Amino acid sequence: MSVNKAGQNDTMPVVDSEDIAQSVVRHLQQSLGVELDEAGPAEYWEALSLVVREIDLQRIRATRKKEREGKARRIYYLSLEFLVGRLLGNNLHNLGIFKETEKAMAKLGTPLVDILENESDPSLGNGGLGRLAACFMDSMTTLDMPAMGYGINYRFGLFRQSFAGGKQVETPDGWREDSFPWGIERAKRKQHVKLYGLVREHAGKAVWEDTQEVLGMPWDVPVTGYGTGTVNTLRLWESRAAHGFDLNSFDAGRYQDSRSQEISAENISQVLYPNDNHPAGKELRLIQQYFFVACSLADLIERYKRENSESLKNIADKVAIQLNDTHPAIAVAEFMRVLMDEENVVFSRALEVTREVFAYTNHTLLPEALEEWPQQLITKVLPRHMQIIHMINYHFLHSEVEAVWPGDDHMKRRLSIIEEPDRPGDDQMVRMAFLSVVGSHKVNGVAALHSRLVQEKLFPEFHHMWPEKIINVTNGVTPRRWLDYCNPELAALIDETIEGDWRKDLYKLGAMKAYADDPAFQKRFAAIKHDNKKHLAAVIKELCDVDVSPDAIFDVQIKRLHEYKRQQMNLLHIMALYRRLLDNPDLDVPPRVFIFGAKAAPGYKVAKTIIHAINRVAERVNNDRRIKDKLKVVFLPNYRVSLAEKIIPAADVSEQISTAGFEASGTGNMKFALNGALTVGTLDGANVEIAEEVGDDNIFIFGLTVEQVSELRHRGYNPRDIYNRSEELRSVIDWLDSGDLCPEEPEAFRPLVEALLDQGDYFLTMADYQAYSDAHERIAETWKKPELWWKMAITNSASMGKFSSDRSIQDYGKAIWNMS
Ligand SMILES: *Cc1c(COP(=O)(O)O)cnc(C)c1O
């Protein structure tokens, strides 16, 4: 295929439908061995993916050549998760050949939409953190930044979710078992990683020996940018047995982990841990972290040496490494080890270089989510790294902390990277967040409020020591996937209406504000939403076998299931609405469909109970004729990127109702507003900035603020008081607890009821309930005034310029990566 015809500039491929059709047929026959008349959508999907891959590869080579010649500083984004979503449709869009491909496939007799449905989501992430990494790769590439993502090519990504009797059932997701044409093995770049063993001194030098060895094989996934020739690489490591990995010595009962956790070379990259905002603390997870970090650092150092110099003393001029949360934090110790043990750099200089290279993004304030590893475990798996962490800690405490708080041993204990146990005899724990802060030149939070809390509550002493270090970079989402690709009708309407390419500069959407109360524009905007709702209604019918009307309010909460995100508050309110309708079936309320999507970590009991309860309430409500279709509840199974792409364009209301102070940013909130949904939300995470951008009149804010939350806790909070005072809350909680919704297991919802009433309701569901219910009344009143509703919806979409991940990446470039 000719990617660049004579006379065309080299930013976009120039291919027409005829070229594409020919290439598809060629790949069907020559790559897949399938004849045209045998090909179905699955075969077409694979052939078409190979066509696009060919374009990508050609451009990757050009991109790398340009970068080698330009000798630019490269950004390396280290993340245990990349939730990239399906790649074919997105790549066609970014390459600007979607329309021509539609024509080509129509000629071949299979609609492109059907073909795209055959791609399984690479489920290499849990939720927001992994999706952020994917949006950032898209933006770095679109902005022509030399960037590379490093992660793990898990064989089994996040589990597949289904429901049995309303309960979550998990099955393994072997997402690349059939085929994954995007991943290309690059044996030439394989790495060897050492584990275990011990450290001896030879002639005054520490030597790490008697180690086990694992092989890391890289798989490269091309990342296309929009409207640019640049194609970057996401390099994902897979573990393999290497000579010297002695399985037998591992079976000898040396592990406290259960049998299913037995560690062999291959199973290091077998599974993604399914916890969101909660570390598993398992040996295999530490090994995963070190494995991918060691492979990635060795790989980028080799590249630096190839392109620049054998000496690493100026490596910071060419290399910036971003740590996506503390998951890759062991990289700080590994980089120090390489500098000191392999490159003979002295400790103090090694620490300087390390700090220039590294930066760390904090994603959570939840105390239980902050990673700590037992010192004993690190000593066993990575003995040299434990020594180096002690050296860093010693220097940090005795020269840097000492300089600010001379003689203050209490402060040294508070700030030590190695936490002393409360009780003597307990394990000392290594605080990975402290290691990340000490080893980095910048630390960022992910929304303005969150970053302030990182400065004031999480790391106040670090902030005092280094007032310039902790900064904010508000998250964003790529408008290519989250508007252009997932909502093509709205994208076309915007193109018709405003000047310039909002796909590259999302602030351009601001011009749409001028049309917010234009009746003709409102009509078209509303018609597109209605159309998207019809499509979603069909998906709901297929997945849940429930009929919903596109004329009802589609009220959506899709995100990981966690008590801090408060799906349980949404549930209590739905139960109350149902009871209000039963009391008065002629109640003048707009019909509503409540839509959920969420996976719960398999070990998270209360979260799974909430899923079960929502499904049982849904079943009851959906089958009750008395309420005349005024209320429906659906829980779509197996929430993931490809499902989000169908749900978000069809949403009227976006539920962003976390307890204030707990959601670091949220990015779902941004995707919804971009697609014209109205937010009902607390003043938490990026909701605060969304409210600033859209204006207070265009969002339904409710509930306690961060300050009010801490005042309430200070005063003493008793959820029972609220239960006793509120007739409505009492009736729905008693109903949950009565066994009526689950007669075969009457105690099924006890864990939820106990969390709310007996265990202090830590996430303040009861305290915020009334304000939440009132906010929903305001939503219902607004829905009755369509001109107002659509004005608000359009204003939301038009005000999302700030929340492009392009803006986030530009902020990182300026404030963290020192790019011009
Ligand atoms: C955007 C996204 C998330 C993050 O959603 P939040 O509401 O910000 O928690 C999680 N999962 C998927 C699949 C997403 O696309």
TrEMBL record:
| Residues with the N6-(pyridoxal phosphate)lysine modification | 671
* CDD domains membership: GT35_Glycogen_Phosphorylase
Gene Ontology MF term list: glycogen phosphorylase activity; pyridoxal phosphate binding
- A family per Pfam: Phosphorylase
Q: Which InterPro entries match?
A: Glycg_phsphrylas, Glyco_trans_35, Pyridoxal_P_attach_site
- Judged by the first EC level, this protein's enzyme class is transferase
- Which BP terms does GO give this entry? glycogen catabolic process
Tree of life domain: Bacteria
According to UniProt, the reaction catalysed is:
[(1->4)-alpha-D-glucosyl](n) + phosphate = [(1->4)-alpha-D-glucosyl](n-1) + alpha-D-glucose 1-phosphate
Q: What does the UniProt keyword field contain?
A: Carbohydrate metabolism, Glycosyltransferase, Pyridoxal phosphate, Transferase
Q: Which cofactor does it need?
A: pyridoxal 5'-phosphate
Give EC number(s), comma-separated.
2.4.1.1
List, alphabetically, the GO terms of the cellular component aspect.
cytoplasm
Entry-linked NCBIfam families: P_ylase
Q: Its family?
A: Belongs to the glycogen phosphorylase family.
**Function in brief:** Allosteric enzyme that catalyzes the rate-limiting step in glycogen catabolism, the phosphorolytic cleavage of glycogen to produce glucose-1-phosphate, and plays a central role in maintaining cellular and organismal glucose homeostasis.
PANTHER family (alphabetical): GLYCOGEN PHOSPHORYLASE (PTHR11468), MALTODEXTRIN PHOSPHORYLASE (PTHR11468:SF25)
Protein name from the UniProt record: Alpha-1,4 glucan phosphorylase
Q: Which organism is it from?
A: Endozoicomonas numazuensis
Q: What is the lineage of its organism?
A: Bacteria, Pseudomonadati, Pseudomonadota, Gammaproteobacteria, Oceanospirillales
